[in-house]
Design a protein that fits this description.
- The protein is an alpha/beta fold.
- The protein is about 25% helix and about 30% strand.
- It is built from 4 helices and 11 strands.
- Helix 3 crosses helix 4.
- The longest helix is centred in the middle third of the chain and has 18 residues.
Length: about 210
């Protein structure tokens, strides 16, 4: 049984990472259940293991080096971050299939968006979930994962109603040709509580 937890307020990034590290260790030891933790952070940038220095255009906010895969991303108010801590060894019969796990996270976001009336899609060679906008394609959700001793952590970030100008300090995920968008920018007036409920419903169908 996956435990769902929602943290109130804006959670400092260091606190979230420390909590994830502790939970992953407990799951690995059989001392805690799997968990999805829903969080909002104050404005910040994180650099994944593939981040390039040139993609940090302006350090407007604190920058954190993180062990997840991927490049630079932004977190901030109005964005739903979901940290997903699952025992992949158990779920994949001893051998974690990270590729399939990432596909499942993508599918989770796509189904969440579909339930909110938005068509989200994968794009070959581009990380994240993409949508069509009047000015071209834009990313609406990001993924970044790490697996330690068969247990996943980090997760996904869905743009509900963040300040999109905050993304201008980085090249999100190293992709310069396309922009970012949000549910609000697409004209979907979804409240965070509604998004959380829809995310949980979609998650349970996939995982």
């Amino acid at each position: 049984m996956v435990e769902w937890r929602k943290e109130p307020g804006l959670v400092p990034y260091e606190d979230a990472v420390a909590a994830m590290e502790a939970r992953v260790a407990a799951i690995r030891a059989g001392a805690a259940a799997e968990q999805v933790c829903l969080i909002e952070h104050p404005p910040l940038y994180t650099a994944g293991t593939s981040a390039r220095a040139a993609d940090l255009l302006e350090a407007r906010f604190p920058v954190y080096q993180t062990g997840r895969g991927g490049q630079y991303t932004y977190h901030g108010p109005g964005q739903r971050v979901a940290y997903v801590m699952l025992d992949l060894k158990r779920r994949y019969a001893g051998t974690p299939d990270v590729r399939h796990y990432v596909w499942s996270l993508e599918e989770w976001l796509i189904r969440t968006l579909a339930a909110l009336g938005v068509r989200g899609e994968r794009r070959e060679g581009r990380v994240g979930i993409w949508v069509a906008t009047p000015s071209g394609e834009a990313k609406i959700a990001a993924l970044g994962v790490r697996v330690r001793n068969g247990v996943s952590y980090h997760g996904v970030a869905l743009n509900v109603n963040p300040d999109l100008s905050h993304f201008q300090g980085i090249v999100p995920c190293g992709i310069r040709e396309f922009g970012v968008t949000s549910l609000a920018a697409l004209g979907v007036p979804a409240m965070q509580e509604t998004v959380d409920r829809v995310m949980k419903q979609a998650f349970l169908k996939i995982f």
